[in-house]
Design brief:
The protein is mainly alpha-helical. The protein is built from 11 helices and 4 strands. The strands form 2 sheets. A two-stranded antiparallel ribbon has the order 1-2. A two-stranded parallel sheet has the order 3-4. The radius of gyration is 22 Å and the shape is elongated.
Length: 237
């Protein structure tokens, strides 16, 4: 697969619907990096400009870069860019993200992708699976599903007891440890009461070792915020 060129990359703003309806998890801005999708957007932009010119509207060049397709809206741009349109590019991004979710979490991902604001968390799925899901999230590209990609596994982890999180660290592979370091260094964990941040030494050492080798920027945060538990009391129930 050839790398995405800067001419293929489009930064899109939020597409406002006349009725004010919104997808609850749609980001304020996102990127389109697929060349075919970028070509679709440019085609509907050009159509909007042409129709506006035919209607006698005054067009001007914006020094801030390309518009997001909403300055001269058409039914085609609505179908393509509306976050709630099942035929739109945002829906395609979310569908691809949900299809790539771990099997045990796919139904949960599909619910979020469809616009369910607070889907019930899946029962009986080990937290190590959620760590692995978070660890697989790439920082780029920031497409229309990137907010879900970061938020979804965090939602599953944030409500868990620290002891259960620590046990899941023990069960995690390298991808899971990547996600675990991201979680334990993030706000969802570090805003907890100090007593809920006491992590047994076994899990703490695994996290620090992974951060030292693979995420050195997070090491100081972990060392400061992972408080030691009096002893390693976690047992498999």
């Amino acid at each position: 697969m050839r790398p995405t060129s800067r001419t293929d990359r489009l930064v899109m703003g939020d597409f406002s619907r006349p009725d004010g309806a919104r997808h609850p998890h749609h980001p304020q801005s996102y990127e389109i990096t697929d060349p075919a999708e970028a070509a679709e957007v440019r085609a509907v932009r050009e159509l909007g400009r042409r129709l506006a010119a035919e209607a006698g509207e005054y067009l001007f060049d914006c020094s801030c870069g390309d518009d997001d397709g909403t300055r001269h809206p058409t039914p085609e741009s609505g179908r393509l860019l509306d976050p709630l349109s099942p035929e739109g590019i945002p829906a395609r991004h979310r569908a691809r993200w949900a299809a790539a979710a771990p099997g045990a979490l796919r139904q949960y991902a599909e619910a979020l992708a469809s616009g369910t604001e607070e889907p019930a968390p899946p029962a009986g799925v080990p937290l190590s699976v959620a760590f692995g899901w978070l660890g697989a999230v790439r920082q780029e590209p920031r497409d229309a599903a990137w907010l879900l990609a970061e938020r979804a596994p965090m939602r599953l982890l944030a409500g868990a007891a620290t002891a259960e999180l620590a046990w899941a660290v023990r069960e995690s592979d390298r991808a899971g440890l990547e996600g675990a370091v991201r979680f334990f260094a993030g706000e969802e964990f570090t805003t907890r009461h100090p007593k809920r941040r006491r992590v047994p030494d076994t899990a703490r050492d695994l996290l620090l070792r992974h951060a030292r080798s693979h995420r050195p920027a997070d090491l100081a945060v972990l060392e400061r915020r992972l408080l030691r538990a009096p002893e390693d009391r976690i047992r498999r129930s």
